[in-house]
Amino acid sequence: MNLNMSHSLNENLPIHTGPGTRGGDLLRRYWQPIALVDDLPARDPVPLRILGEDLVLFRDDRGRLGLLGQRCAHRCADLSYGRVENGGLRCVYHGWLFDIEGHCLEQPGEPGKGQHRDRVLQKAYPCLERAGAVWTYMGPGEPPLFPDYPALTAPDAYRFSARWLSNCNWLQANEGNVDPVHTSFLHALEVPAADADPLRKAQAQEVFGSDVAPRLLVQETRFGLRVIAERRQQPEGHRFVRVTNFVMPNACAIGGAESPFGRGGASMFWHVPIDDTSHWRFEFVFHSKTALPRDRLREAYRREADVRGVPWRNASNRFGQRRDMLDRSFVGMGQTFPVHDLFVTESQGEIHDRDNEHLVTSDVAIARSRRQLMQAMQDLAEGREPRGVVREPAVNRFHDLLVLTETLAADAKVEQFLAEMEGADIYALRPLAANPS
Predict the structure, then answer these.
(1) 3-class DSSP state for residue 253?
(2) Contact, 103 vs 121, CB < 8 A?
(3) SS3 helix, strand, coil % of the chain, rounded to 5?
(4) Percent of the chain beyond pLDDT 90?
(5) Residue 75 pLDDT class (50, 70, 90 cuts)
(6) Distance between CA atoms of 405 and 420, rounded to whole angstroms?
(7) Closest Cα to residue 283, out of 303, 297, 262?
(8) For residue range 421-436, what is the model confidence (pLDDT) as tens digits?
(9) Which of the chain's termini has less CB crowding within 10 Å, N or C?
C-alpha cells in the first residue's frame, strides 16, 4: 500500500478552516467545543476566535447561552464590551440590543426604538452545554444531533474537563492521536517501583515499552477509525492490546488519565481551530465505574497551564526540557503527556509541510484518517453528509466506540474479543464510590 499519497498533500486536506474554505465547511458540519463552562463569567461577555471567525460568547439575563459575531451590525463596534441586559447583549456604542439568535430587539437612538430593526440580523450560532464545555454548531441548516459519546453525555460527576492552547495547525495535533508507536518513545518514563500513584504508574512502560514495534490493525467505523495495536509481552507470550479511535473530523477517543481505573473509561480530545496556525485541545476524561480524582487532576493541570489553558512550558522556554532528566524521561520534559504532545506537534511548524514526510507502515492510521477527511470533503461537495454526522436518534448511541487496554492470551482472537466488548456495553454507568486516593 502506498502511504505517501499525492504531491502537495496539504492542498487536499482540511488545513485551512476559515469561512469559505473546504476544511472550514467540513468542521462546521459538526458540534465543536469552544470554551469551558468555568471560563464563562455569569454576566461578562467573552471574546473568542474560532475557525477564523471573531465571536463573542455570553449568557443573557435568563441564563441562556449566546454566540454572536463580535462586530456590531450597526457600526462594527466590539460587542465583547457590551452590556448583558433586557434579554440580550447591548452594544455600548449606540445601545443596539441583540438576543441570542441575533435578532435586533432595540435601536434606542431611533424613533420607536427602531421601526425597521427586524431587518437587522447579527451573526449568531446555537450553543449548548455538555461535559463541562460550551459547544456550538457553525454550519448551515438544522444542527445535527449532539453525538451521544459516553464521555460527553454522562453526568458531570463521572468526568474531568480541561483545555490547552497549541500554536500549530489543528490537523497535525489530531494526527498524533492515531499514532500508536510514538507512545513507546515520546512518552517513555521511568516510574520508581515505590511510587504508588496510579496516575503515574499508568504512564510507566509496562505496556508501551514491552514491544516498541506493535502490530497495527485499522478498521473503518461509522464515526471514523478504530486503531488496534498489539504488543507482545516477553517472555510470557501474552499480548497487550490497546484500542484507540479517530473520531471524525477533529477528535479522538483514547486511553488517558482514566486508564488506571480499569475498563469502562475513555479520554476524548477535540482539536478546535482558532485559526490556521493555532487551536484549542479540549480534553474530556471519563470513567463510568469509578469517581475520578478530580482534585488531583485539576492540581496536575494547573501545574502545567494557567487558568486560560496556556501552558507554562512552551517554545519560548524549550518546553522546560532538562537534559539531565533524560534517564527518567525520554524527552526530558516531565511526566505530563499533553506537554510532550504540544512540543512535538508545534515543532513540526505552524502548518506541517506533509510533502517532506516519509510515511512508513506504522503510519497506516494517519494515512487512513487523511483519506477519510478527503472523502468527507468530497461528500460535501457532492451534496452528501460526511461520516459521523448523526441525524437519527436510533443510531445516536456509540457502544462501538471502544477504548481498551487489555492483556490477552497468545492464542486469543482479537476480532472476537472486540465483538464481545461491543455487546457488553462497557460504558454503562454505575453509582460512583468515593474518589480514588
Answers:
(1) strand
(2) yes
(3) 25, 25, 50
(4) 68
(5) very high
(6) 15
(7) 297
(8) 998 889 999 988 665 5
(9) N
Place of cell 507554562: 312
For 41, residues 6+ apart whose C-beta sits below 8 A from its C-beta are none
Q: How far is CA 370 from the centre of its chain?
A: 17
Judge contact between 325 and 305, C-beta under 8 A: no
Question: Quick check: 35 and 58 in contact, CB under 8 A?
Answer: no
Give the pLDDT confidence of 399-418 residue by residue, as tens digits: 899 999 998 888 889 999 99
Give the HSE-up count for residue 361: Cα atoms under 13 Å, Cβ half-sphere. 6
Q: Which long-range contacts (CB under 8 A, 24 or more apart) does 38-41 make?
A: 38/132, 39/307, 39/308, 40/134
- Give the model's pLDDT for residue 199: 47
How far is residue 402's CA from residue 288's CA, in Å, rounded to a whole number?
13
Residues counted in the chain: 437
Strands 278-287 and 404-408: unpaired
**What are the E-state strand segments in 347-422?**
404-408
- DSSP-based three-state secondary structure for 245: strand
108 Cβ partners below 8 Å, 6+ apart?
94, 95, 96, 97, 114
Q: Which of 92, 71, 95, 72 is nearest to 81 (CA)?
A: 92
β-pairing verdict for 88-90 and 127-130: unpaired
How far, in Å, CA of 63 to CA of 131, rounded? 18
Please state whether the predicted TM-score (pTM) of the whole model is above 0.90: yes
Q: Is 307 left (phi over 0), alpha (psi -120 to 50) or beta?
A: alpha
Distances from the Cα of 337 to the Cα of 164, 251, 334, 399, angstroms: 12, 17, 8, 27
CA separation for the pair 194, 141 (Å, rounded): 57
